[in-house]
Design brief:
It is a single chain. It contains 17 helices and three strands. It has 491 residues and is mostly helical. The chain folds into three domains: 52 residues, no CATH class; 78 residues; 303 residues, no CATH class. The longest helix has 53 residues. It binds zinc ion. The site of zinc ion has 4 residues, from helix 2.
Length: 491
């Protein structure tokens, strides 16, 4: 655990070197802290005991129930303290049951979401995603004074129940249960599951590979890489994920109907959308990364050095993000044309490339080498997958697209350079929030102006072309895959 998430690690080790610096008992110090501040990890304070999350957990949600009175032996606990510790332990066990129930219901909600996507009803399913966070907040506000932490669990559970109640009736109607089809559907489902699991490997395999090479990396490196990965995956989910989920049934429609030319047109306009959004986003965030990271993370044990470390790798991860977002679209096209095996082979090949390259580059360039490997991993994968898709859906990469990309990258880099310059020139007195907002908005405006002036009419995005004429219904197998991909990438 120390190896995996360790922005605090160097300080943790330092505290061992000069032990006399630590003042008093660590548990008694926690007892004095304020539970309102989430960085204290205090869950609640009882009458005789308090409950705190372990900073170095052995497992997810590892918590400790501690008496306020400083005691070194279990025998010295009073009858009352024993009772309260047991009471809190029971509460934790009860909450665990509520959460397991909520997890089970979430799977049911996920299934209903898949059926709604199959029927191309996206809005209700998307709005339902707001239920759990909203009900958790409402329950906490209304019930926290009577029920304490249990109010959060109840709110969470209520949200998942509502989610099921709203989505399930509509999905049951759409299902046409025919017993003769079921065994076939089951086999089909299993056959589709395998390639999806393989193509989702990067989200678990890349951190494992990073950890494998970590022996020759300085302390804290892995946590910089972890932060950077989470930032780019988060940005991609917010910007591209919804678009990809909606596009997929249309891809499969065209594929099933044999309309290869229409599928290609849709692929090209959606990729154009991805590039138009992600390339400037990546360059603007690269230029403003230090003020943004300072604003978002720099407090407590995330010090200036951590900001600089994360700032050093983030540009590479943002470059990789463009490829990752585009692969989100390209990989769905492979499922639409039932060529998942090609996708799996490309995925495994790229993974091997990443493993080798990150080992090699991290020796000379430390954790920045791993960042470079991440950028190359997604870019190479995108180029090869796009070329492979060319064999099944006409040619995907062409000179026009290359020209468009070249203009886009040049314009974005110019904006990035301008912003970098401008951020030095702006007066220090200006607050960090105002600075980031002003520069970010200015960057977007300048980019749009440049794009407007330099792009030809064909290069400007026409949203109508994204959803050009559709006639047939998507195939069931395609929708099963879509829902699988949709559920698992959001993690
Ligand atoms: Zn103590």
């Amino acid at each position: 655990m120390n190896k995996l998430w360790s922005p605090w690690r160097s300080q943790y080790i330092d505290s061992f070197l000069n032990k006399e610096k630590s003042d008093g008992c660590i548990l008694c110090n926690i007892a004095k802290k304020n539970p309102e501040d989430p960085s204290n990890l205090l869950i609640e304070k009882g009458d005789l005991t308090f409950t705190v999350l372990n900073l170095y957990p052995y497992n997810n949600g590892h918590l400790m129930i501690i008496p306020f009175e400083h005691k070194s032996e279990i025998e010295s606990l009073t009858r009352e303290e024993n009772a309260e510790i047991m009471e809190k332990l029971q509460l934790a066990a009860r909450l665990q049951v509520l959460f397991w129930l909520a997890v089970g219901l979430s799977s049911l909600a996920a299934f209903s979401t898949a059926v709604h996507h199959f029927e191309k009803r996206f809005v209700r399913a998307a709005l339902c995603l707001l239920l759990v966070p909203t009900s958790t907040v409402v329950a906490a506000v209304l019930l926290a004074s009577q029920l304490g932490v249990a109010s959060l669990a109840l709110g969470y559970l209520t949200g998942t129940i509502l989610h099921c109640l709203i989505l399930l009736p509509g999905s049951v109607d759409s299902l046409d249960f025919q017993p003769s089809v079921s065994p076939h559907l089951g086999r089909e489902f299993a056959a589709r599951l395998f390639p999806v699991l393989i193509t989702l490997l990067p989200f678990t395999a890349l951190p494992v590979i990073d950890a494998f090479w970590s022996s020759h990396l300085p302390d804290g490196s892995l946590s910089y890489l972890g932060y950077a990965t989470r930032i780019v995956i988060g940005l991609t989910s917010v910007t591209i994920h919804g678009v990809a989920v909606v596009l997929f049934p249309y891809f499969s429609e065209h594929a099933v109907a044999g309309q290869r030319e229409r599928l290609r047109a849709m692929m090209i306009s959606s990729l154009k959308f991805v590039f138009l959004l992600m390339v400037p986003l990546a360059t603007i965030l690269t230029a403003l990364r230090l003020p943004i990271l300072t604003l978002l993370f720099e407090r407590g044990s995330f010090d200036r050095q951590a900001t600089l470390g994360l700032g050093a790798v983030l540009p590479w991860y943002l470059a990789g993000m463009v490829g990752m977002a585009a692969m989100n679209i390209v990989s769905r096209a492979f499922y639409a044309v039932s060529q998942a095996r090609t996708l799996v082979l490309i995925g495994l090949g790229s993974l091997a490339l990443y493993a080798g390259l990150s080992g090699l580059l991290s020796r000379s360039f430390s954790y920045a080498g791993i960042g470079v490997s991440y950028a190359l991993y997604w870019t190479v994968q995108l180029i090869i997958a796009g070329a492979a898709l060319g064999f099944v859906v006409e040619k995907l990469w062409c000179v026009e697209q290359f020209k468009f990309l070249l203009k886009l990258v040049t314009a974005s880099l110019l904006v990035g350079a301008l912003l970098q310059r401008a951020s030095i020139l702006l007066p220090e007195a200006m607050g960090p929030v105002a600075r980031v907002l002003l520069l970010g908005t200015a960057g977007c405006v300048v980019f749009l102006l440049m794009a407007w002036l330099s792009f030809t009419a064909a290069e400007k995005l026409d949203f109508r072309s994204l959803f050009a004429a559709r006639e047939t219904v998507p195939s069931g197998e395609a929708c099963i895959t879509n829902s699988l991909v949709a559920r698992s990438d959001t993690r």
